[in-house]
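User: Let's play a game. I give you a shape written as tokens, and you guess the letters that built it. Ready? Here's round one.
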């Protein structure tokens, strides 16, 4: 059992007068974490303490901040196994995947530690004795509200970029993964000056209280669209800048000229990895009629071959969903699609026994207007819509209130070119559902959020620019 403590104004164990929350292992329902729930007064005190610490950290030399982040990365790496096990215990991710998430987080911290000190601004020469320059500066106090589905990697991105650019950070991890957030905060705090990082735990009410505080300069949120819009409204009232990576319904478009078995492998990876609980998971599949039969048969075979089990079991390929409440949401969308005429080829049933397990599910005969296709499911479900042409598939893929990412499998360069130009999303992937170069960035659109969520550009999101005009007195010389 993990017993979580909060970190407020450099003091561990502070606050927690609002009661506690308990997290249960999604594999067997046993309690694994107890965490305090911050009160509104404690949230306000944490913001005030952060403001007090902001000036000192902002004035720290960039090279010193980068060195601190390197030490923080070392500390996170040293705690990698414990962090991975906490992630698996709290949200069910297979242990090897959880270790991969921690490694990705460490790599992100090191990347930002290297990139931040070499950033600069523009200079402009006016008159002979005049000079203009643009200097990046920290924004001040950042609230980072992070998700449960990849808690270390996502948090390291937001926290690392904010801290190394000279901001102080209040971190509120998901109420479904507070122990993971606590272990991460302990590692980071060991390398940072007191007060630069605070940790607040609790449910949605704590996140809402934090996002609504005056005195914040940035609120960065990764999570649901509904919560993100509430945070954006709070930022509009307080004047804080809001960064959001929110929900998505990412399409996969399978063209007529690809190997359907290979395409099914890509679809299975996109739909079933982390039990579909990935921001850029494949949520809907549009497959050309010419290859649809073989594609669906191969996808069913891939789904049925997955080994289902607890995340701690090294043989597990498909772990449980994060909790039964979320499982009910996933199953409800599948059941609604069946009621509207879709057919479940495999999966689609609630298993007996403890935990929040849900099988890899393939649903054929779907229509574009179904909620299973239109809305975010965030589970191991592949709804398949058969289309008669690439044009039809591209049109359907583009028709969504979301704008996170999309994948196109095609052997046609002209189709690939049309896809990346016409799909109104932040990221288009051609012939690979996951991947991307180191240092890659993403900028969601529409209901999926706003602002860069990672990559070197995230450093700029947490910075502001001051323009300075220097001129010698009387037009002479200095």
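Assistant: Ready! My guess for every position:
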């Amino acid at each position: 059992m993990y017993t979580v403590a909060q970190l407020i104004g450099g003091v561990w164990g502070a606050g927690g007068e609002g009661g506690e929350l308990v997290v249960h292992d999604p594999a067997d329902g046993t309690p694994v974490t107890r965490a305090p729930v911050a009160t509104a007064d404690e949230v306000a005190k944490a913001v005030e303490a952060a403001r007090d610490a902001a000036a000192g950290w902002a004035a720290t030399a960039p090279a010193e901040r980068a060195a601190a982040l390197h030490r923080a990365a070392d500390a996170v790496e040293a705690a990698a196994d414990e962090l991975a096990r906490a992630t698996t215990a709290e949200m069910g991710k297979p242990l090897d995947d959880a270790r991969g998430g921690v490694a990705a987080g460490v790599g992100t911290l090191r990347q930002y530690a290297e990139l931040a000190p070499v950033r600069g601004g523009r200079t402009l020469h006016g008159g002979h004795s005049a000079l203009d320059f643009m200097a990046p500066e920290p924004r001040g106090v950042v609230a980072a509200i992070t998700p449960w589905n990849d808690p270390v990697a996502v948090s390291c991105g937001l926290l690392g970029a904010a801290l190394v650019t000279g901001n102080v950070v209040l971190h509120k991890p998901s109420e479904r993964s507070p122990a993971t957030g606590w272990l991460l905060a302990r590692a980071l705090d060991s390398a940072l000056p007191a007060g630069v990082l605070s940790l607040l735990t609790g449910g949605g009410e704590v996140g809402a209280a934090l996002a609504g505080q005056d005195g914040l300069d940035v609120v960065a949120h990764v999570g649901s669209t509904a919560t993100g819009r509430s945070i954006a409204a709070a930022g509009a009232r307080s004047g804080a800048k809001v960064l959001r990576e929110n929900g998505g319904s990412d399409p996969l478009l399978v063209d007529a000229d690809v190997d359907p078995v290979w395409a099914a492998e890509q679809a299975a990876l996109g739909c079933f990895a982390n039990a579909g609980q990935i921001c850029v998971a494949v949520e809907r599949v549009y497959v050309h009629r010419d290859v649809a039969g073989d594609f669906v048969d191969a996808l069913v075979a891939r789904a049925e071959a997955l080994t289902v089990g607890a995340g701690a079991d090294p043989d597990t390929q498909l772990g449980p969903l994060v909790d039964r409440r979320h499982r009910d949401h996933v199953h409800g969308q599948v059941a609604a699609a069946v009621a509207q005429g879709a057919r479940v080829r495999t999966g689609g049933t609630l298993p007996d026994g403890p935990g929040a397990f849900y099988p890899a599910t393939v649903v054929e005969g779907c229509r574009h207007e179904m909620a299973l296709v239109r809305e975010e499911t965030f589970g191991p479900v592949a709804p398949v819509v058969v289309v008669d042409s690439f044009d039809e598939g591209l049109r359907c893929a583009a028709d969504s209130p979301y704008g996170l990412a999309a994948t196109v499998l095609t052997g046609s360069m002209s189709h690939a070119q049309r896809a990346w130009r016409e799909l109104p999303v932040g990221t288009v992937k051609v012939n690979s559902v996951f991947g991307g170069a180191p240092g890659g960035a993403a900028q969601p659109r529409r209901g999926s959020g706003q602002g860069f969520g990672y990559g070197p550009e995230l450093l700029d999101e947490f910075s502001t620019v001051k323009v300075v005009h220097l001129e010698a007195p009387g037009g002479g010389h200095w």
